[in-house]
């Protein structure tokens, strides 16, 4: 190779290096945002130019690792909490001089993902969703409601009431666990199914359930589902727990920003620590949700009294009364909404009763009669 050839190759190499260096400097990761939807989570990275990327799936714990190149971090927050159904959080770091690393901490190692680029401006979009049968997606399909028990109603009825029944907890969230291992999620589902079976025999009532099996549904998604279904009532069914194993009885709650009634704040605090409760962080968001439910405060209070009265007549346990507190699962429900604590699973005596099918049926009949009394009262007022 002659001297001139060597010089030309050297110049070409320098030009290539300078071009690459300039490209590395230009492609900054400038903004990161996320959007939580019912069936997937979308991460959007705004970048100053088009970058390449390499993706790796990691387990124990489940993560999605994405290396962007050539890319550099700008003044971005390095750690972002997402905390929704699919992604726990997002971390960014400068892995090497020209490589930015993005790590998504996933909630499920079997999650699937889709990655694609957009232009104008340049963005990299990452969508994460569940590979399994997704209960939320199924719930939202018109033909796939878990309980849509009546498709038509006689002409003699003025309207059809949509009653949304919400069995507390589920899936990876067992709720409270009794002394002998009985789980709140199982009791709540069994009683809710009994209530649904009673309501389905009533003309003029459609029943929807937020879950019909051992699925995990985030707290705020439950009322979001209820709103999308256009519900008229929302009834969330739970079993109570307390440090004092002698605590017993039934109590019914409606939502309020400030707790009212003995032990109301403690019950709300326990229910709000369920998995997914962190999704409803933020004072402004909480205030807005409470304002939505405030429109129905009087109706929720009235529904609570109807259900509490009938429950106490149906089963011989202590009447702990109607109370109010800030429950995440009730916030944002654009309808009268209540939470029923059907007994203390932490009490050995009540735990044993809650195991029995006949006792659960009595509880269900009490809730059913309370709902029916409320709707009849509402019909009577509306017809005046």
Quick recap of the structure?
By secondary structure, this protein is of the alpha/beta class. It contains 9 helices and 16 strands.
What does this structure look like?
With 384 residues, the protein is α/β, with parallel strands linked by helices. The chain has helices at 3-26, 135-140, 184-199, 219-228, 264-272, 283-294, 297-314, 348-355, 357-382, and strands at 28-36, 41-47, 52-58, 63-69, 72-73, 79-81, 87-96, 99-106, 112-118, 123-129, 161-167, 205-209, 233-240, 250-255, 319-325, 337-344. The chain has a 6-stranded mixed β-sheet with strand order 12-11-13-16-14-15, sandwiched between helices. It has a 5-stranded mixed β-sheet with strand order 5-1-2-10-9. The chain has a 5-stranded antiparallel β-sheet with strand order 3-4-8-7-6, with no helix packed on it. The longest helix has 26 residues, at 357-382. The radius of gyration is 27 Å and the shape is elongated.
Indicate the structural class.
alpha/beta
Name of the top-level CATH class of the largest domain: Alpha Beta
As a percent range, the share of strand residues is 25-35%
Cα Rg: 27 Å
Q: H/E series, N to C?
A: HEEEEEEEEEEHEHEHEEHHHEEHH
Provide the spatial order of strands within the biggest beta sheet.
Answer: 12-11-13-16-14-15
Provide a count of the helices.
9
Strand tally, please? 16
CATH homologous superfamily heading of the largest domain: Zn-dependent exopeptidases
- Tally of structural domains: 2
The poorly predicted ranges are 4-24, 142-158, 275-282
Reported for the largest beta sheet, the result is: 6 strands, mixed
């Amino acid at each position: 190779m002659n001297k001139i050839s060597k010089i030309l190759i050297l110049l070409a190499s320098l030009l290539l290096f300078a071009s690459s260096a300039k490209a590395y400097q230009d492609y900054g990761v400038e903004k990161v945002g996320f959007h939580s939807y019912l069936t997937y989570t979308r991460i959007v990275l705004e970048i100053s130019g088009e970058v390449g990327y390499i993706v790796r799936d990691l387990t124990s714990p489940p993560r999605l690792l994405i290396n962007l190149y050539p890319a550099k971090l700008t003044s971005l927050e390095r750690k972002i909490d997402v905390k929704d159904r699919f992604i726990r959080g997002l971390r960014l770091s400068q892995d090497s001089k020209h490589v930015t690393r993005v790590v998504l901490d996933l909630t499920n190692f079997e999650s699937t993902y889709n990655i694609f680029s957009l232009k104008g401006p340049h963005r990299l979009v990452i969508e994460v969703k569940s590979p399994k049968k997704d209960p939320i997606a199924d719930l939202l399909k018109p033909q796939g409601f878990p309980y849509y028990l009546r498709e038509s109603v006689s002409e003699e009825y003025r309207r059809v009431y949509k009653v949304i029944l919400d069995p507390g907890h589920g899936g990876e969230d067992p709720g409270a666990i009794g002394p002998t291992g009985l789980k709140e999620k199982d009791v709540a589902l069994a009683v809710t199914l009994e209530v649904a079976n009673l309501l389905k025999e009533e003309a003029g009532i459609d029943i929807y359930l937020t879950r019909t099996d051992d699925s995990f549904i985030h707290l705020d998604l439950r009322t979001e589902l209820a709103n999308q279904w256009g519900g008229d009532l929302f009834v969330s069914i739970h079993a109570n727990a307390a440090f004092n194993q002698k605590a017993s009885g039934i109590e019914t709650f409606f939502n309020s920003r400030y707790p009212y009634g003995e032990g109301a704040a403690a019950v709300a605090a326990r229910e709000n620590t369920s998995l997914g409760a962190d999704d409803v962080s933020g004072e402004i968001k909480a205030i807005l949700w409470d304002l939505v439910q405030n429109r129905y405060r009087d109706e929720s209070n009235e529904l609570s009294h109807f259900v509490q009265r009938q429950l106490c007549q149906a089963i011989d346990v202590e009447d702990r009364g109607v109370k109010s507190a800030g429950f995440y699962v009730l916030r944002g429900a654009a309808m009268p909404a209540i939470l029923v604590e059907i007994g203390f699973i932490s009490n050995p005596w009540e735990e044993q009763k809650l195991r029995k099918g006949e006792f659960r049926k009595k509880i269900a009949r009490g809730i059913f009669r309370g709902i029916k009394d409320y709707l009849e009262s509402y019909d009577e007022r509306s017809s005046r």
